[in-house]
Design goal:
128 residues
Length: 128
């Protein structure tokens, strides 16, 4: 097991902030122009997951996923005046479960995230 480096901690904190930002913006946008606002918000969640997996790996993907799910759950709860940001209709339920869209990045082929040159013959092979 490798020791935890400050660079790794900083990357995870950045991915945590990215997940919170994506879910804040997505919560505001998912009703903007039905259904395209929701589609756009889910695509941004998928893009954040792909970025996290490419930058850090599985732990980064988990960090973004947990940040998105937790933030949307907090924003979906009733406010002090009884208002809600995520309603219990079709759009709201899809957005509430939309954190699972990060899972799309988990099923993408591993070779898409390797640092090898195109046409290289072995793992980690240098470009000719």
């Amino acid at each position: 097991m490798q020791p935890i480096r400050p660079r790794d901690v900083a990357r995870h904190l950045g991915l945590l902030a990215l997940g919170v930002l994506v879910s804040l913006v997505g919560t505001g946008v998912h009703r903007a122009s039905p259904p395209w606002g929701l589609v756009l918000a889910l695509l941004v969640v998928v893009a954040a997951g792909v970025l996290a997996r490419a930058w850090v790996g599985w732990t980064g993907l988990l960090t973004v996923g947990l940040a998105v799910v937790t933030t949307v759950a907090v924003l979906a709860s009733r406010g002090p005046g009884g208002d809600v940001l995520v309603a219990l209709d079709a759009l709201g339920v899809v957005w509430y479960c939309g954190g699972a869209a990060v899972g799309v990045a988990a099923v993408l082929p591993r070779r898409w995230f390797l640092d090898t040159a195109v046409g290289a013959t072995g793992p980690g092979a240098a470009a000719p």
